[in-house]
Amino acid sequence: MSIWKLLEIELYKISKRPRTYISFAAISAIVLIFQFAFKADGENYMNLMLQGINDSFQLDKQQAMNGYFMCYIILNTLLVQVPILVALVAGDAISGEANMGTLRLLLSKPISRTEILIAKFLASVFYTIILLIWMAFFALVLSLWIFGSGDMLVFRVAGEVSQIMQIAQDDIVWRYLAAFGYAAVALTVIASLAVFLSLFAENSIGPIITTICIVLVFTIVSNMNIPVIDTHVKPFLFTSYLVGWKGFFYIATTQDGIPIKGSIEDIQSIQRSLMILVGHIGLLLLLSIYIFKRKDILS
Amino acid sequence: MKYTTIIFSTILIGIHSHAQDVNTLIKQVKNKLDNVNSYIATGSMKTSIAYLKIPIAKVNIQYKKPNDLIIKSNNGVTFVPKGVDAISLQKLFSSEFTAIDGGTEMIKQKKLRTVRLLPTSQQSNIVLSTVYINESDLVVEKSSTTTKDDGTYEMEMQYGKYIQFGLPDRIVFTFNAKDYKIPKGLTLDFDNASSRNQKIDKTMLNKGRAEIVFQQYTIN
Question: What domain range is B24 assigned to?
Fold first, then answer.
C-alpha cells in the first residue's frame, strides 16, 4: 500500500471525526464576531490605537480600517489560539487508534510503522493547511468584502518604540501569502509535537491537553520581557518563533522613513526562525518514528 | 536742545515711515494673494516624523476664500498634520494684526524683509507670526508662527511658475507633534530581537515635517 493511499485513509478518518469540525466552527465564529464588532464600533478601537496621533494628525479612520487591516488584527489574535485547534486533531493521531483498539490491527498489516506514522503526520499537516485556508478565506477574503481594500496600517511596538507603518495596497497580498505559508510551518511544529505526544498515551485527551499546556507555558514565557529570559530562555522555545509571520509586514524604509515597496525589514530573522521551526519539525518527526518503531503494542 | 529736538523728530519720522513701509508691504502681499478666489492643486505630500513610516501621498489641495483649505488623498490612507491649513497664507493675513518691522535678513542668499505680526484680537489662536518677505516678488518665503494650542510651526516656500499669484511650488511645513506610544498588549508585539536593530532619532519624536510639492494649480 502506497503512502498516498495511507494518507487518503487517514484523511478519511479525520473527516469522519466530529472534533475536526470544531476548529472550523470556532474559527468562523471568532472571525465573524470580530468583523461584527469592528463594523459596529471599530472607530473606538482605531482611536485607541491612534491615541496621541489624533492630536497631531487628521486621518480618515474608515479608510484605514479596511479588509487588510482587519485580517492582520484577526491573525494577530487568532494565530495564538490556533495551535490548540491543531492539537485537537493531531493529538489524536496514534492515541486515538490505541484508544479504539485499532492500533494493533493497523500495525499487523504489511505496512511499515514509518509509513503509518508519516501518513498520520501528513494528514495532520494537511488538516492544518486546510484550517489555515479556511481562516484566510474568512479573515482576509470576507473582511475585504465587508470592509473594502486600501493601504494597510501596521501598528508595532519594537522595544520602547511605537511605530505605525503604512503598506501600499498593491504591496500587501504577497505578504499575506508569505505570512500564511510561515504560519503553516509554525503550526506544523504544533502538529508534530501533538503526534509525538500521542505516541505515549492510550487516549487522546492526554496528548491534546499536554500539547496545549506546553504551548501555553512556552507562549507565556516567550511573552515575558525579562532580559535574562530574553537571552537565555526565549531562543530555545519554539513559541518565540510562532509570531514570526509578522515580520513579512515589517516593511523596510529609506533613511527618510519612506517604506520601500516589496521589502522586508529583517529577512534574515524570518529565515532563521523558519529554519528553527523546520528543525523542530524534523527532530520531532524523527523522534516519533524512532519511538513508534520500538513501541510495544502487545501489552 | 534745538539739536536734540531735531534728532528725535528725525528718528520718529523715520520709524513712522518705516512702519508705513511694512504695512504697505503686507498690504501688497495680501492684495496679491487676494487675487486668488479659489484653487484646486494636485501634488504630493511627504510627511516625516520618527514614529511614522508612510509613503509619499498623492494629494488634492482645495482652497476657497477666505480660509477653507482641504487636503485630500487621491489614494490610500493619508496622515495630514493638524495645522497644515496654515499653508494658506491668506488665513494668516485675514485676521487683524499689528505689523512690526524686523529689518532684513539674508536667508538662502536672498535678502528678505522680516515682519512680526501680532494679532490684535485676544481670541486669536496665533500668539506671534514672523514672516520673511521677498520685497521684489511680493511673496512670503518663510514664516514662523507660535500658537496657543498647536505649538510652533514653520514654513518655507519655494516659488516657480505661479509666483504671480503668490502660490508656491513647494512648501516645507515643520510642526510639533505629541509622542506616540501604544501598549505592547494591544499589538501583541514581543519582538525584542528586531527592536535591537531599531535606529530611531529620539530628537525627531516630537518634530514633524510635511513637504508638499505642488504639480499643478487650477486657479479661479
Answer: 2-219
CB A199, CB A288: distance < 8 Å: yes
Contacts of A151 in chain B (CB under 8 A): 55, 75-77
The number of C-beta contacts closer than 8 angstroms across A and B is 141
3-class secondary-structure state, position B27: helix
d(CA B208, CA B174): 6
Complex ipTM, two decimals? 0.79
Q: Which residues of A touch B47 (CB under 8 A)?
A: 57
- Domain total for chain B? 1
A18 in reach of chain B (CB within 8 A): no
Beta carbons within 8 Å of A86's beta carbon, 6+ residues apart: A23, A124, A127, A128, A131, A187, A190, A191, A194
Biggest CA–CA distance in chain A, Å, is: 73
DSSP E strand stretches across chain A: 57-58, 152-158, 161-167
CB atoms within 10 A of CB B123: 7
- Residue in B closest to A220 by C-alpha: B190
| B192–chain A nearest CA distance, Å | 6
pLDDT digits (tens, 9 = 90+) for A259-298: 999 999 999 999 999 999 999 999 999 999 999 998 887 7
How many of the other CB atoms lie within 10 Å of CB of B37? 11
pTM (two decimals): 0.85
For the domain that residue B18 is a member of, what is the CATH number?
A: 2.50.20
Biggest alpha carbon–alpha carbon distance for chain B: 83
pLDDT in tens, A240-260: 898 899 999 999 999 888 999
B 179-218 residues with CB < 8 A to A: 179-184, 186-198, 200, 208
Between the two ends of chain A, the Cα-to-Cα distance in Å is 27
List the single residue in B46, B78, B182 with the smallest CB-CB distance to A162: B182
Contact map slice: A 167-186 vs B, CB within 8 A: 168-169
